[in-house]
Design a protein that fits this description.
Number of helices: 5
Strand content: 15-25%
Shape: globular
Structural class: alpha+beta
Number of strands: 12
Radius of gyration: 18 Å
Largest sheet: 6 strands, mixed
Helix content: 25-40%
C-alpha cells in the first residue's frame, strides 16, 4: 500500500534524507523499448523541500518510485496527487515541482477566477493527463524531441466544471461568444504564465486547440 504524506510526517522524512543531493539525478537514458526498471537514486533536497511544501499546504499526495521506462522516459522525484481541494481527472505521476505549481494555480488562480468572473464555484478540473512517454507533437521544429510529458513534467488541462453545472472547455471557450468565458480563460492563462516555464494555448498551434499545456521547465515561453 502506498503511503500518503501529511505535514506531521515530513520532519522524519526530511531528516532521513538529509544527506541527499540538491538537484535531481537523471541517469543516462536506456534504449527505447527497454523493460521499465526502478531506479536506486537518492532523493534530492529540491524534491524533499517540495514534499514539505505540499504538506504545508495540506495537499494529500503519495511519493512515487523513481522509474526509467527506456528511450529517455523517466519519472524521477514525482508524486501522485490524491487531494488538492478540488477533483482533477486523469492525473498520473507529476514531477513534484510541477505538482506544487499546479496546486498553487488551481487554488489561487482558477478557483477564484471561476467565482469572481463566472459567478460559480469550481468543482472539477479536467485534464488529458500528465505523464506520457512520447515526443513533442504538432511542431515540425521539434523533430524527435521528447515531450515534457515523458519526464512527468507537463500536464494538459482541457476543461473546468462549475457548481452551477456549466462545463467550460478550452476548445469551445477560448473564442467563445460569451465574454465572461473568454475572460476567465485568459485570466487563468496569464496566471499560468507566471507559475510555469512553458504555457501553450490554442493561440500556439492547432495541436493545442483543446487544452492548456503547462510545463515546469523554466523556459519563460508563454503563448
Amino acid at each position: 500500500m502506498r503511503r500518503l504524506f501529511l505535514a506531521s510526517e515530513m520532519f522524519a522524512l526530511t531528516s532521513l534524507l538529509a544527506g541527499c543531493g540538491g538537484h535531481e539525478v537523471r541517469p543516462p537514458p536506456r534504449p527505447a523499448g527497454s523493460r521499465p526498471v526502478t531506479l536506486d537514486i537518492p532523493t534530492s533536497r529540491e524534491t524533499q523541500a517540495c514534499f514539505a511544501d505540499l504538506s504545508r499546504q495540506e495537499v494529500r499526495f503519495s511519493p512515487m518510485p523513481d522509474r526509467d521506462y527506456g528511450g529517455g522516459c523517466q519519472i524521477i522525484g514525482a508524486v501522485q496527487l490524491i487531494d488538492i481541494g478540488v477533483p482533477v481527472t486523469n492525473l498520473k505521476g507529476m514531477r513534484c515541482g510541477l505538482a506544487d505549481a499546479f496546486v498553487g494555480w488551481a487554488r489561487n488562480a482558477v478557483a477564484p477566477a471561476a467565482h469572481q468572473i463566472l459567478g460559480s464555484d469550481l468543482v472539477r478540473i479536467e485534464s488529458f493527463g500528465s505523464y506520457a512517454c512520447r515526443n513533442v507533437i504538432g511542431s515540425a521544429m521539434a523533430g524527435n524531441k521528447l515531450s515534457g510529458h515523458a519526464i512527468a513534467n507537463a500536464v494538459d488541462i482541457s476543461a473546468f466544471v462549475l457548481d452551477d453545472g456549466r462545463r467550460i472547455t478550452v476548445l469551445d471557450g477560448w473564442r467563445s461568444d460569451d465574454p465572461a468565458v473568454r475572460e476567465f480563460l485568459q485570466v487563468i492563462h496569464a496566471s499560468a504564465c507566471k507559475r510555469f516555464g512553458t504555457v501553450l494555448s490554442p493561440d500556439y498551434n492547432a495541436a493545442h486547440a483543446n487544452h492548456l499545456h503547462l510545463e515546469d521547465d523554466h523556459a519563460h515561453f508563454c503563448r
